[in-house]
Structure formats: structure tokens, C-alpha cells
């Protein structure tokens, strides 16, 4: 293996896309494992997360790996996109790749918002409130836009259900874009 030639321009930054994909796959696997125990109700979401952490065999490990791989995925995506931008990797013949990278970066950031919101703890509640306050600042269409995105203007069961659905749909969108 050490006798293989490695071109001099290849460095650690060439691995960041693959590391991001690995973090995504870990997210899917651990998220799927936690789905069996998570309760999608405003009153039971926090208790179900506590149950996963304390009662489920290796639940603490699964949730911790899920949480840390999410943070790692965001970091790796940022570290992947910036060098491509700085080196002009979006020039001719690679525009579509750059657009897909930017879409994946936005979806990766939205993973963080939906992931923080699902446990329905204080961090999750305020994450929802902060994210919904952005469209509320748009004149005229603020209330209908917030209701479209979150199901209501306050944090309710419909809000939690929509955020859970967003997190599931994001997995498919990211998976489809990574396939390219």
C-alpha cells in the first residue's frame, strides 16, 4: 500500500466529502435506531429521549453518536465547501457540482435545526422559536408563511410533526444529491 503513487496535489481536503458522507450514513443509521423509541408528541418527546438515554440498551451511545456525528457532519461540510470555493473549484465544467455542494450545505445546516427541535427540551423549543421568527419579520406574508412552514404560529403538535417530516425528507434529499 505504501508503494502506491499519490499525486502531490492530493491532501486531506480531498477526504472531506467522503467523511461528510460517512457522517450522513451514521446519522441515518442511528436516527433509524432511535425512531423505534421516540414518541412524536409534544408531551412525550422529551420523556422518550430520556428513556432512550437511560433505559434502552446502549441508547446513550446511539444518541451520543447521533449527536456528535451531526456536529461533525456540519463541520466537515463547511470544511469541504470553503476550499472548493477558495480554489475556484466551481469554474467551467463543475458548476453543477458546486450548486449541489451548496444545496447539501444548506440541507446539512437544516438538519441541525430539525435535530435540535425534536427532543422538545428548552434548546429545541427556542430553536423553533428563533427559526420561525425569521419569516415573521417579512411584512404582509409573515403569518401565512410561518403557518405553512410550521403548522401554526406557536409551537404545537403540528409544529413537531412537520419538523419531524422535514427531517425525514431532508435525508432523502441529501441522499439523492450525494448520489450525483
UniProtKB/TrEMBL annotation:
<feature type="transmembrane region" description="Helical">
    <location>
        <begin position="68"/>
        <end position="86"/>
    </location>
</feature>
<dbReference type="InterPro" id="IPR048259">
    <property type="entry name" value="Cytochrome_b_N_euk/bac"/>
</dbReference>
<dbReference type="GO" id="GO:0016491">
    <property type="term" value="F:oxidoreductase activity"/>
</dbReference>
<feature type="domain" description="Cytochrome b/b6 N-terminal region profile">
    <location>
        <begin position="1"/>
        <end position="180"/>
    </location>
</feature>
<feature type="transmembrane region" description="Helical">
    <location>
        <begin position="12"/>
        <end position="38"/>
    </location>
</feature>
<dbReference type="GO" id="GO:0022904">
    <property type="term" value="P:respiratory electron transport chain"/>
</dbReference>
<dbReference type="InterPro" id="IPR027387">
    <property type="entry name" value="Cytb/b6-like_sf"/>
</dbReference>
<keyword id="KW-0472">Membrane</keyword>
<dbReference type="Pfam" id="PF00033">
    <property type="entry name" value="Cytochrome_B"/>
</dbReference>
<feature type="transmembrane region" description="Helical">
    <location>
        <begin position="98"/>
        <end position="118"/>
    </location>
</feature>
<dbReference type="InterPro" id="IPR016174">
    <property type="entry name" value="Di-haem_cyt_TM"/>
</dbReference>
<dbReference type="GO" id="GO:0009055">
    <property type="term" value="F:electron transfer activity"/>
</dbReference>
<keyword id="KW-0812">Transmembrane</keyword>
<keyword id="KW-1133">Transmembrane helix</keyword>
<protein>
    <recommendedName>
        <fullName>Cytochrome b/b6 N-terminal region profile domain-containing protein</fullName>
    </recommendedName>
</protein>
<dbReference type="GO" id="GO:0016020">
    <property type="term" value="C:membrane"/>
</dbReference>
<dbReference type="InterPro" id="IPR005797">
    <property type="entry name" value="Cyt_b/b6_N"/>
</dbReference>
Amino acid at each position: 500500500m505504501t508503494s502506491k503513487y499519490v499525486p502531490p496535489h492530493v491532501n486531506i481536503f480531498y477526504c472531506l466529502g467522503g467523511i461528510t458522507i460517512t457522517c450522513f450514513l451514521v446519522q441515518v443509521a442511528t436516527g433509524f435506531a432511535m425512531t423505534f423509541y421516540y414518541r412524536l408528541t409534544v408531551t412525550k418527546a422529551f420523556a422518550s429521549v430520556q428513556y432512550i438515554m437511560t433505559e434502552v440498551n446502549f441508547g446513550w451511545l446511539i444518541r451520543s453518536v447521533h449527536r456528535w456525528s451531526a456536529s461533525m457532519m456540519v463541520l466537515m461540510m463547511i470544511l469541504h465547501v470553503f476550499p472548493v470555493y477558495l480554489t475556484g473549484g466551481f469554474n467551467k465544467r463543475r458548476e453543477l457540482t458546486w450548486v449541489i455542494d451548496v444545496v447539501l450545505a444548506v440541507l446539512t445546516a437544516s438538519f441541525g435545526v430539525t435535530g435540535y427541535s425534536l427532543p422538545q427540551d428548552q434548546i429545541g423549543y427556542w430553536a423553533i422559536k428563533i427559526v420561525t421568527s425569521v419569516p415573521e419579520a417579512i411584512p404582509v406574508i409573515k403569518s401565512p408563511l410561518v403557518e405553512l412552514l410550521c403548522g401554526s404560529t406557536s409551537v404545537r403538535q403540528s409544529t413537531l410533526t412537520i419538523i419531524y417530516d422535514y427531517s425525514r425528507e431532508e435525508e432523502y434529499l441529501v441522499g439523492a444529491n450525494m448520489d450525483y
